[in-house]
Specification:
The chain is 64% helix and 4% strand. It is mainly α. Among the domains are: 125 residues, no CATH class; 106 residues, Serine Threonine Protein Phosphatase 5, Tetratricopeptide repeat; 113 residues; 78 residues; 77 residues, Arc Repressor Mutant, subunit A (Orthogonal Bundle), CATH 1.10.10.10. β1 and β2 form a beta hairpin.
Length: 863
């Protein structure tokens, strides 16, 4: 005997009953409404169903859902409780969406084996993502809220683009649309209610829109304000039908299931909804909710409502919800009676889509709509900036993007008003494009435009203008003013402000005090609200992680940022993460890694004529060559960033490689070039603007100074304020200091600094630098230890790989290693896969011998 029913996705599931005894077959048949047998106990039904489900689960995973356990028959509840206890041991799983959380194991990463317990948002999110993988994260969360995380509702969304994709340029429907059969579960019950009851329920349902977790509740105050006691009395029929619960003392109405609210709104007419929204607009006090209710009540364009909704969008972006701001602006555009206003609002939404939310396709569509309705003129500044950004992520180039924005600024009617946010956004975009271009002639139009702002430029933009184009020449007061801006929180939460402040902080080595802003952008992106803004946050954190020694965190963030950029079509922006990963690979001695990454970085940037960005590939190559002792190659790569004897203007990373140039010039017998570069570093005020640059300048001066003066300068560099905040740079200075001390026969002091440098390099995983300092120690006569740490360093293992290799050599399993280092077993396995070739072995059994052998070999090496 075989029965067939529908699974959650609509596919046919064959349920063979042939393996059951007569009592169990009768029980299942009765439960399914098939020809009846004798009445049986619920536990027999449960056991029978369990056997059937296990039989089916042998071929494919199953999901058993119970959306409203409170409404079930007692025997059904008993059976489900038994199944819930037994099913976690099999491939079949249960899902429920109401009632109290019963705890239990965390859901797995994939749908097979997923256990969705009541109130478990994470599991419900995974279930929805499995069913609709194209739905963006931010929209999934809105759907979860709108459906109350009910598995039946989540898996029966209609297969339509407006539901599956939920493009942020469109407002969400008033109710999350559901599969017709699911809607009918509650729709028929709502339809049988009196008209005045349905009207009261509609008012309560719409009053809760946009309130997040409270959407399944209604405010009784609103209902009484709209219709008095008669409106309250109208709810009695809904209470009798067990659709709502009314708490008069708390003045709230609870929809007994989130789908009740869905059915109430879905069964109403558009005219009924407009009337309800019109009533609510006159009752609510919050200006943003009032603007939305007015917008939903409009049947024709209305400029007053459009202006209110535009202001709502501006307030929303300041709160950090860029996706909601885009939705508000698009709706405001739809309500705009004048084409110019409609085009302007669409352009602003497109700009936010391109540089904050990360929806390039939608930004392009909005730009097309903006151009289609524009009447004369060259369009808005937001349109120019958004077009430039979209072009660069496609097949456009920096020159075209630059000209678009410059022309829009110079021909605009903004009057250089410093309070015009659209103008400030355009100027910020232009500044970024100039940096990518790396050409001195691009900057003067930007400087002129900023200088013309009245009454005066915003402080955050002015600081960017002073620091980013040429940080080597930034004045000391610039850093002090930026520190005050960060300390006072003047930037607020607006994504544009955060980007401007943090970009400046990166070049003045001040991001440590403003990392919270960068993390705010990252977390917003992870939540699906501001993907493009998150890419900037990832970039800033990666740069700061490198100089402050958080290399493992930086690598993880760079990997995440690169994956995010590629997933959302930011083919150009990904170069930032290629640079960071190349820099890490260079510092750690991974030649194949830094070569491949630098090549890809150069290709991505030169393809778009972004020559300023392309120079960063030479930075990574120079660092890698220095670690290997290839000073000739290092010198030529550094000179591509900034010629010897000058800190190139409009090359923001020229100061970052200044010490590299001096060292490589000296080691290749180019003393004149080294001394000229030191003079350029000394003349530049960047030392006053950044303590890190001050330390590196002291070290560069020491390299070319006579011995007595050099020792004073090196000591001052090592002991300079906050030197420990930049461990890799300080370790390099200690290495250079130790080398000079050794040549002067000051052995004890030399060993002190060389040991400190070696320890830092090993901790960071900078294997070639650890090998250099260890070799210098041996030259200083330090006993040859031949330790496993020496072996690991000489093999080129990273800091994380060293820890894993040592623990594996001690006999720990991957799981045990993972528990100690807070890693997954799979991650540990991946690390070992990379460790074995470096040590020349094929299994973990050979680890201990390999480390011991290499340690002895390393100890025998000499300069």
């Amino acid at each position: 005997m075989e029965t067939r029913t529908h699974d959650a996705g609509g596919a046919q599931v064959g349920m063979s009953l042939s393996g059951l005894d007569e009592e169990q077959r009768d029980a299942v048949s009765a439960a399914l409404g098939l020809p009846p047998g004798h009445v049986v106990d619920g536990t027999v039904v449960a056991r029978a169903h369990l056997l059937v489900l296990r039989h089916e689960a042998a071929d494919h995973p199953l999901l058993l859902t119970a959306d409203d356990p409170s409404a079930m028959h007692r025997q059904t509840t008993t059976a489900l409780e038994m199944l819930a206890h037994e099913l976690p041991r099999s491939r079949a799983r249960t899902a429920a969406a109401s009632g109290a959380d019963t705890g239990g194991p965390s859901p797995s990463a994939d749908l097979p084996g997923l256990l969705v317990r009541p109130g478990n948002e994470e599991a419900a999110d995974r279930l929805l993502h499995h069913a609709f993988p194209a739905m963006p994260l931010g929209r999934r969360r809105q759907v979860l809220t709108g459906t109350g995380r009910a598995p039946l509702a989540l898996l029966h969304l209609p297969d339509a683009p407006d539901v599956i994709r939920f493009p942020p340029v469109e407002a969400l429907p008033e109710v999350v649309p559901l599969f017709e059969g699911v809607e009918a579960l509650f729709g028929m019950r709502v339809g049988r209610l009196p008209a005045r009851t349905r009207a009261a329920l509609l008012l309560l349902a719409l009053a809760g829109q946009g309130e997040g977790e409270g959407e399944s509740e209604g405010d009784l105050h609103v209902l009484r304000a709209a219709g008095g006691d008669a409106a309250r009395a109208a709810l009695e029929a809904a209470e009798t039908a067990k659709l709502v619960e009314v708490d008069d003392e708390a003045h709230r109405v609870l929809f007994r299931h989130p789908l009740v609210r869905s059915a109430v709104v879905g069964s109403s007419t558009r005219a009924e909804r407009r009337r309800a929204h019109r009533v609510l607009a006159g009752l609510v006090g919050d200006p943003d909710r009032r603007a939305w209710h007015r917008a939903e009540a409009c049947a024709t364009p209305d400029e007053t409502t459009a202006a209110l909704l535009e202001e709502t969008g501006r307030r929303t972006i300041r709160r950090g919800d860029a996706a909601a701001a885009v939705t508000a602006l698009v709706r405001a555009a739809d309500l705009s009676p004048h084409p110019a206003d409609q085009s302007r609002r669409l352009a602003e939404a497109a700009y936010l889509g391109a540089c904050v939310t990360g929806e390039l396709e939608n930004a392009s569509n909005l730009l097309r709509r903006a151009r289609a309705v524009a009447t004369g003129g060259r369009g808005s500044l937001h349109a120019a900036a958004a077009t430039a950004l979209v072009l660069l992520e496609g097949d456009g180039d920096v020159e075209t993007a630059y000209r678009l924005v410059v022309d829009a600024i110079e021909e605009g009617s903004h009057g250089y008003d410093a309070t015009d946010s659209e103008l400030i956004d355009a100027l910020s975009t232009l500044l970024t494009i100039c940096g990518w271009a790396g050409r001195a002639e691009y900057w003067p139009p930007l400087f002129r435009a900023i200088d013309r702002l009245v009454p005066e430029p915003p402080e955050e933009l002015l600081l960017m203008r002073e620091a980013v184009p040429d940080p080597a020449r930034a004045r000391e007061g610039t850093r002090r003013r930026l520190a005050a801006l960060v300390r006072n929180g003047a930037a607020g939460a607006h994504p544009g402000s955060l980007v401007r402040v943090n970009t400046t902080a990166v070049f003045l080595d001040l991001l440590a005090d403003s990392r919270a802003g960068a993390w705010q952008l990252v977390e917003s992106g992870r939540a699906g609200n501001a993907v493009a803004g998150a890419l900037t946050g990832f970039t800033h954190l990666c740069l700061d992680d490198f100089v402050t020694g958080r290399w493992e965190e930086g690598r993880r963030l760079a990997d995440e940022g690169l994956a995010l950029a590629r997933a959302h079509g930011y083919a150009f922006t990904g170069w930032y993460f290629l640079f960071h990963l190349a820099l890490l690979a260079a510092a750690r001695g991974d030649e194949a890694g830094w070569t491949t990454l630098a090549d890809e970085l150069a290709h991505v940037t030169t393809l778009r004529r972004a020559h300023g960005a392309a120079r960063l590939a030479h930075h990574a190559r120079a660092l890698g060559a220095l670690g290997q002792g290839d000073f000739e190659a290092a010198y030529h790569h550094v000179c591509e960033v900034s010629p010897a004897g000058t800190l190139a203007p409009y090359a923001p990373n020229a100061a970052w490689v200044a010490l590299d140039l001096v060292e490589s010039a000296l080691r290749t017998n180019r003393r004149a070039q080294a001394e000229a570069h030191v003079r350029a570093m000394t003349r530049a005020p960047s030392g006053g603007a950044s303590p890190r640059m001050a330390m590196l300048t002291l070290a560069a001066r020491a390299l070319v100074a006579p011995d007595a003066e050099a020792l004073v300068l090196f000591r001052a560099a090592v002991d300079s304020p906050n030197a420990r905040d930049w461990p890799f740079d300080q370790a390099r200075v200690r290495l250079l200091y130790g080398e000079r001390l050794r040549r002067l026969r000051m052995i004890a002091e030399s060993r002190h600094h060389l040991n400190a440098a070696t320890e830092t390099f090993i901790r960071l995983g900078a294997a070639p630098w650890a090998a250099r300092s260890a070799a210098e120690l041996r030259a200083a006569g330090q006993p040859r230890s031949g330790t496993a740490t020496d072996a690991a360093a000489s093999a080129g293992l990273t800091a994380q790989e060293m820890k894993i290799a040592f623990l594996a050599a001690e006999g720990l399993t991957n799981k045990q290693i993972g528990e100690r280092l807070f890693l997954s077993s799979r991650t540990v396995s991946s690390h070992l896969y990379r460790i074995f070739p470096k040590l020349g072995i094929r299994s973990r059994a050979a680890l201990r011998d390999a480390l011991s052998h290499r340690g002895a070999t390393t100890a025998d090496q000499t300069l």
